[in-house]
Please model this.
Amino acid sequence: MVSVRPRRLLMGRSDDFVTGFTMTLLQVLRYPDPRLRHRARPVERVDDEVRRLIDDLFETMYDAPGVGLAAVQVSVDRRVVVVDASEDKSAPLTLVNPEILGREGEEESQEGCLSVPGVYEMVRRAERIRFRALDRDGVPFEADAEGLLAVCIQHECDHLEGRLFVDYLSELKRRRIRKRLEKQRRQGVEAPAPKRREGTVI
Ligand SMILES: [Zn+2]
Model:
C-alpha cells in the first residue's frame, strides 16, 4: 500500500526523493557515543525489513545532508551502508555486508561525519579501491571506486568496524573534538547543518 508522507506535506517541501512510501528520519548518534564503537553484525538475508532500513538510511542521509551513512550510526547493529557521492543525489548506492578487496594509491582529503558534526579534518586514505557487497535485492556485486566515492566507502566500512575518522587524528585533536561535542550536548546546542563546501560529510 502506498501512503503519503505527512511531514513533507505539512512542511510544503518539494523534494526530489519522495517515492510515495512512508520513510522515517532516524536519529544519528554523535561522537563520543559508545554505540558508535560497536562492530556491526553481517546481514544474513536482505529482506523487506533490511530494505526498509536502507530507505530510512537514504532519507536520513539526504536530509542531513551527507554523502554516506552506516546503520551503526543510527544504532542498528547491521552491516548496511548507503552512499551517494553525486552532486545531485542521482547515484544512490546500497552496500550490504561490504568488503574492501583491494586498495591502491594514497590521497588526503577533508572529511566530516554526520556523527561528528561541525568537524572537518584531513584524512589520508587509499585513492582507489575494489570492493564487493550485496545490493538491496541481496545480489552480490563487485566494483571499483575512486575519488570521493572511494573515500566514502572506506569511511563507511570503518563505521562498520566501530572506527571513526577522528581515530586518524592525533590524540590531542581528538580530545579537543570530544570536549567540544560533549559541551555542545550539555548545553543542548545543535550543530549547524553541514555544508558541502566545508568538506565531505560522510
Ligand atoms: Zn561518518
Notes: The chain is about 25% helix and 25% strand. The first helix runs from residue 6 to 11.
